Structure prediction request, 318 residues.
Amino acid sequence: MVTKDDVLIVEDSPVTGELLKSYLEQLDYFQIHICATGKLAVKTFKSLVRKKIEPIVLLDYSLPDITAHSVFTQMLKIKPNVHVILETATEREDPGIKDLIRLGAFRYLEKPIRFESLKEIFETIEKEQDFFQRESTQIELFKQATNEIQAQIQDHIEFVVKSLKQLSVNFMVQLIGQADEFVISHLKKLEDENKIINLGEKKEIACNQCDSVKITQLFYCPACKSPNFKLGHLIEHYDCGNITEENSYKNDMCPNCHREIKALGVDYRVMQNHYICNNCNEFFPEILSEYFCLKCEIKFKLDDCSWKSSTCYKAINM
Ligand SMILES: [Zn+2]
Ligand SMILES: [Zn+2]
Ligand SMILES: [Zn+2]
Prediction:
């Protein structure tokens, strides 16, 4: 059940005041304040607004003390979006009435007052309030969703910082897919909380086509270009010239000539850390490398890359 607004009736005739009150009660409005003068009405209005009560005002056009115009303008100053319904026996075309409507009087209620007209006006106000209520609920929901997303992104940033230990703003912006300012402000916050430290500007390899810093290095066999290789130790048997992996010499037996290898440095040598291609079985002390852009998926050599610099951070207390 929606609580209905308070209503402030500004009416010097007690009979009309009571009539309005009884009509309003039929519409389920029970918080009704009746003021017989304009001055009292302004005072009452002010104290209600101060208590966060925003009454709908029924304002009689002819008051005994001050003008309806004066009451209305004073109320507008207190609450610019006040709903004021003007009750009058005077014609709508009257310049004074027109003036009040121009100032923003919500409706014009003709005297003698009929229940149906009053009902219609209050129903319109309720519909309008209902609309704004729904509108602001939607805005609230949208804000909540936005906050949740931002919280998720912040968690994501912290997760990345924690797992990478060291990272650049450029990399983070790209990974998170959010505006620089958002990422930077969150990293600053982590810095203030002593969770990360600023390592200053750092240069990173960037794609020469799309500028992305999400780059990975690819390694491959110089002979057959296969990326399928391993790092291992090789043994060269001087007598027969066989060079194969250490573990192919089972029981110190050369896999080529089937003779025993005897003394290191005399009849064989160990070649440490060589790359052995699983595809063509060739071996190399060095392997070829290229860079690969994970965004636009092109390959490029170190000489052809572009460089981007941005602030770099290191996780310390995470
Ligand atoms: Zn190969
Ligand atoms: Zn041999
Ligand atoms: Zn690229």
User: Anything to note?
Assistant: Residues 7-113 form a domain with the Rossmann fold fold (CATH 3.40.50.2300).
